[in-house]
Amino acid sequence: MTIIVTGGAGFIGSNFIFHMLKKYPDYRIVCLDKLTYAGNLSTLASVEKNKNFRFVKADICDRQAVYKLFEEEKPDIIVNFAAESHVDRSIENPDIFLQTNILGTATLMDACRKYGIKRYHQVSTDEVYGDLPLDRPDLFFTEQTPLHTSSPYSSSKASADLLVLAYYRTYGLPVTISRCSNNYGPYHFPEKLIPLMIANALNDKPLPVYGKGENVRDWLYVEDHCKAIDLIIHNGKVGEVYNVGGHNEMKNIEIVKLICKELGKPESLITYVADRKGHDMRYAIDPSKIHNDLGWLPETKFADGIKKTIKWYLENREWWETIISGEYRNYYEKMYGNR
Ligand code: NAD
Ligand code: DAU
Q1: pLDDT at residue 163, as a whole number
Q2: What is the pLDDT of residue 228?
Q3: What's residue 328's pLDDT?
Q4: Which of 39, 49, 32 has its CA nearest to residue 111?
């Protein structure tokens, strides 16, 4: 079995590669990644020498490079994590989100049609459903919830999902889609809420909370997401969408206060800053389908997952300090300087 994992030098893709190489020692895992600001080859250092692993630097929009890799590797399965993934960046500059997230997905699926594969899996997001109101805790996103996006990022991901389903219906491409809630864990890029707050708190820097910090996200430990995708590519039904989430809803401010507590830092570091434009209020996944059909359940409780995550950031300072000392500084200044 040969699996091409695109975007495998990023947060979730790298965790997925570690999971797969460990669980399936006879599978060949090929990582295709453009190494954008969010991709980090050092993340994959521990598997670099594994004889079942290959890394290829390429853009999923580069048709020639993608076709060449398919010719060389004759993959059975493609798992597409490659994307521009940060909502705030999509608000600043939508264009690259449309290129990578929509056109890149189409290019990968064209390669799948041309060379034939057993499965194309699209890693999507709960953000395609838009948001839910705070005063209706009885409402959840199901696979039937209409797509109703808010940001250029979520719109590009929803567009990709529609293309994936169109390739299934029109060309019979064997596809599956997973729509997961917010992940956290090792190798999470420090522009996102949890790693940003951990890094800033450790450096005694202000903790920038958007608006009043009342927005709710449904947090899932990254390993649980990887296990869900593993189940879907092996046992999921072609043409189906699976929502993935662990019923772990928390307000942003609760998370930030918890991080302060775990690190022994004062809450006076918390700074309320201008809200995100079009900020989604609440995400909440109903994971009944993947539970009932594939037996998936999250294994890591948030209380344990956040401790493990903080421990990882404490023990791997070099990884994130290298990131925040480079180009990231300009980004941070631009996004938070006058917020
Ligand atoms: P990330 O930003 O950490 O990593 C993205 C990776 O894709 C990087 O390694 C980057 O170099 C690579 N990449 C970007 N553009 C590329 C291109 N044109 N060609 C090849 N590689 C390219 O993202 P993540 O948080 O790991 O998210 C991975 C996927 O999961 C995304 O599709 C995202 O939409 C989805 N998702 C993320 C979350 C979350 O909480 N992080 C939740 C649900 C779904
Ligand atoms: O729900 C899945 C999505 O989760 C994925 O599809 C995205 O790729 C991923 O980035 C994530 O999107 P969010 O916008 O929910 O994540 P982010 O970490 O950027 O923000 C989480 C919440 O924290 C959100 O309500 C905005 C808020 N926030 C974020 C940052 C970076 C702050 O209050 N301050 C900040 O500095």
Answers
A1: 98
A2: 99
A3: 79
A4: 32
The mean pLDDT value of the chain amounts to 97
In degrees and rounded to multiples of 5, residue 179 shows phi and psi of -120, 105
Pocket of ligand 1 (CB under 6 A): 6-7, 9-13, 33-36, 38-39, 59-61, 81-85, 100, 104, 123, 125, 157, 180, 182-183, 189
- Confidence at residue 327, expressed as pLDDT on a 0 to 100 scale: 78
CA of 192 to the centre of ligand 2 (A): 6
By most ligand atoms within 8 Å of CB, the mutation choice from 84, 91, 147, 182 for ligand 2 is 182
User: In angstroms, how far is the first alpha carbon of the chain from the final one?
Assistant: 49
pLDDT of residue 326: 81
Gap between the Cα atoms of 88 and 105, Å rounded:
21
Q: What is the DSSP annotation of 217-243? A: EE-EEHHHHHHHHHHHHHHPPTT-EEE
From CA 262, how far away is CA 258, in angstroms rounded?
Answer: 6
Alpha carbons 152 and 63: distance in angstroms, whole number: 24
Pocket test for ligand 2, best of 81, 86, 87 (most atoms within 8 A of CB): 87
Residues 159-206: tens digit of each pLDDT: 999 999 999 999 999 999 999 999 999 999 999 999 999 999 999 999
pTM of the model: 0.98
CA 205 to chain CA centroid, Å, is 26
Are 232 and 293 spatial neighbours (Cβ–Cβ below 8 Å)? no
Where do the DSSP E strands lie in the chain? 2-6, 28-33, 53-57, 77-80, 119-125, 175-180, 183-184, 207-210, 216-218, 220-221, 241-244, 249-251, 270-273
Q: How far is CA 27 from CA 107, 171, 264, 322, in A?
A: 24, 28, 43, 32
Low-confidence ranges of the chain (pLDDT < 50): none
Q: Is 102 exposed, middle or buried (0-12, 13-18, 19+ CB in 10 A)?
A: buried
